[in-house]
Recover the amino acids of this structure.
């Protein structure tokens, strides 16, 4: 799949933007703060319904405006598609495919992209919530129906937590215990599916991340990842979950996920009632990243962490392209090459060369290998520079 045209209205610093794109590499060049990342962020939003830079949609709307609109013309195997989303300051967002209304959460069915940016170091170094979000976004791109499962789980979790808080304040009554058991059933049903899908995804990423890391670094540092599950007793609140916790979880997985989930809820019942909070389930899980059999978080250097995060995104793109009927995901590299030495720049250029379309941002043209600069778009102060004279003036 490729993006042939991107149109923005009142998005970030763009009143209006129109950008034509081509198959292969597309390079957006401009000084920091000019708006080049805003272009690729908008495309990332179309496939993940979120920004890699901010947690709320309001920041994406141009100051003083009520809504921002992202429109992308997509093409695959001669078929054209128009994907649109309207991000509203108040009220629900709206989405369309070929001018027909759809639910925003259905957009990943039509467009898939994988974006790597410096902010993705937070996936490795940050809280478990960032790693869960990464896995869930990839799950939805890989299996779009899971968007509904994840949404239903979140609603069920909120209802169950509300009941637990009520029981903590008033003391558990007989009718509340019966209601809690009903919510337990729904939580286990939805949560078990999410856990199984995440575990399968982690396993599917194992070989692609090894291949991606070797392609970028040129060496084998044993990159690995493994699921850490709260239903198996792993404490994801700990600062650095141990590898022994991961091994213990693997041994427990001989039992059915739903059975283990239900047993964990029973074990935590008293603590949950005391705290008014659901203490086990996919919302409390994590994933462990390792290099040379040591956790990347806390042990790896900045360069190793950067390379692991980049390999994680390249592995994600490879996984999506293998299971897709609509071609490769659009691969987006936001301000990546400035962090790499000449050798790794060349290796990365070779690694992404096989994708149908790659979008790259850079502050300095010379940071990007020449083979990726054939189609270059210059950006300045929220404007697409159309002529050589405009580019010269900046």
């Amino acid at each position: 799949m490729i993006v042939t045209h991107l149109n923005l209205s009142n998005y970030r610093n763009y009143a209006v933007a129109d950008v034509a794109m081509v198959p292969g590499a597309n390079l957006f060049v401009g000084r920091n703060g000019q708006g080049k990342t805003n272009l690729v962020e908008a495309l990332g939003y179309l496939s993940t319904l979120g920004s890699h830079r901010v947690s709320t949609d309001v920041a994406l709307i141009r100051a003083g405006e009520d809504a921002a609109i992202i429109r992308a013309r997509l093409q695959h195997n001669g078929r054209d598609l128009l994907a649109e989303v309207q991000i509203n300051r108040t009220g629900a967002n709206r989405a369309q495919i070929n001018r027909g209304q759809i639910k925003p959460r259905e957009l990943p069915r039509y467009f898939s992209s994988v974006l790597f940016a410096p902010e993705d170091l937070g996936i490795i170094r940050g809280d478990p919530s960032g790693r869960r979000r990464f896995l869930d976004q990839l799950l939805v791109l890989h299996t779009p129906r899971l968007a509904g499962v994840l949404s239903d789980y979140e609603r069920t979790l909120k209802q169950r937590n509300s009941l637990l808080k009520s029981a903590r304040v008033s003391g558990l009554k007989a009718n509340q215990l019966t209601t809690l058991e009903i919510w337990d059933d729904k939580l286990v049903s939805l949560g078990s599916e999410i856990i199984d899908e995440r575990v399968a995804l982690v396993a599917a990423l194992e070989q692609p991340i090894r291949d991606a890391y070797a392609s970028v670094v040129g060496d084998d540092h044993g990159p690995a990842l493994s699921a850490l599950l709260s239903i198996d007793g792993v404490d994801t609140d700990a600062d650095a979950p141990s590898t022994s916790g991961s091994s213990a979880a693997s041994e427990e997985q001989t039992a059915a996920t739903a059975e283990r989930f239900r047993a964990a809820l029973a074990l935590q019942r008293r603590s949950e009632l005391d705290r008014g909070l659901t203490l086990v389930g996919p919302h409390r899980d994590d994933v462990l990243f390792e290099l040379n059999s040591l956790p990347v978080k806390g042990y790896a250097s900045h360069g190793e962490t950067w390379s692991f995060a980049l390999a994680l995104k390249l592995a994600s793109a490879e996984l999506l392209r293998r299971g897709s009927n609509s071609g490769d995901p659009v691969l987006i590299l936001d301000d990546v090459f400035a962090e790499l030495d000449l050798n790794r720049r060349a290796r990365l250029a070779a690694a992404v060369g096989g994708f149908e379309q790659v979008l790259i941002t850079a502050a300095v043209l010379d940071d990007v290998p020449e083979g990726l600069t054939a189609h270059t778009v210059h950006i300045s102060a929220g404007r697409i520079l159309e002529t050589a004279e405009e580019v010269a003036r900046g």
